[in-house]
From TrEMBL:
The lineage of its organism: Bacteria, Pseudomonadati, Bacteroidota, Flavobacteriia, Flavobacteriales. One of its GO terms (biological process) is tRNA guanine ribose methylation. Gene3D superfamilies: 3.40.1280.10. HAMAP family: tRNA_methyltr_TrmH. One of its GO terms (molecular function) is tRNA (guanine(18)-2'-O)-methyltransferase activity. This is tRNA (guanosine(18)-2'-O)-methyltransferase. The keyword RNA-binding applies. S-adenosyl-L-methionine binds at T112, I155. Belongs to the class IV-like SAM-binding methyltransferase superfamily. RNA methyltransferase TrmH family. The keyword RNA-binding applies. Its EC number is 2.1.1.34. Keywords: Methyltransferase, RNA-binding, S-adenosyl-L-methionine, Transferase, tRNA processing, tRNA-binding. It is an enzyme of class 2 (transferase).
Amino acid sequence: MQEKLLEALYQIITPEKVEKFERIAAERTRYATVAVENLFQEHNASAVMRSCDCFGIQDLHIIEQDNKFNVNRDIALGAGQWVDHHHYTDILYPTTTCITTLKEKGYKIAATTPHTDAYTINNVPLDEPIAFVFGTEQTGLSEKALDLADYYVKIPMVGFTESFNISVSAALTMNTIRTRLENMEGLNWKLTKEEQTALKIEWCKNIIRNPDNVIKDFIRRIKEGEL
């Protein structure tokens, strides 16, 4: 059903978009993911989302306790259409909810902090799915996020300042982890064919008019043998 539905949707979008969807979905991953806690500067939030798209990270988890996650379209450049963003906004325990949810999905939690020598982004274990959690611009991660982490991770630096800007930290981390995954043999870290198909259907829905009605009609025609 899903394959036939995607074929039908591909008939009503441009060949250029079809080529892009096929090429980009094949490079997407959920093996590594990113979570951000309480960002308040929209240019940082937007830049992180854009980096997720650029490095093929399909999911961005957003913890919003005190600050709402706002996207600057001029910076994000439409990345929100292609990256799945999951929001955790309950008033008391959004950080706990987010990290518990990720752990239930099988992720190890890597808290990014410059104040530890435990691991760097170059040697943090990648034998299991991993979620990198980044903190707010001024104070970093909350104590709760640090307490719930499986690993502490930092980015090697050789200058006087003790940390990178949050959006730079996220981009450097994603780039390094992506490169390491690509060099690991025998690890299935990209989306399965079924996951790619489901994702491409969602992307099609983002660019067609009245997607729910179109999908409903296509499903009916598939069931009736018209497609």
